Amino acid sequence: MSEQFEPTIVGFTCNWCSYRAADLAGMSRIKYAPNVRLIRLMCSGRVDPQFVFKALAEGADGVLISGCHPGDCHYVEQNYKTMRRFALLKMTLAALGIEDARVKLVWASAAEGNILAEEIDKMVAEVKALGPLNWKGDRRPKTEDGRVPSSVIGHRSVVEGVAV
Amino acid sequence: MSKNGKPKFAMYWAAACGGCEIAVLNINEGILDVDANFDVVFWPVAMDAKYKDVEAMPDKSITLTLFNGAIRNDENAHIAQMLRAKSQVLVAFGACACEGGIPGLGNLSSKQQILDTAFSTISTDNPKELRPQTTFKMPEGALHIPTMYETVKSLDQVVPVDYYIPGCPPESNQIAAVVGLVIKALKGEAQLPPAGAVIGASQSTVCDECKRTRGEKTITQFTRMATFQPREDQCLLEQGILCSGMATRSGCDARCPVANMPCVGCYGPAPDVIDQGARMMSAVASVVDSKDPAEIEKIMRGVVDPTGTFYRFGMPRSLMRHAKG
Question: Is the Cβ pair B290, A162 closer than 8 Å?
Answer without folding.
Answer: no
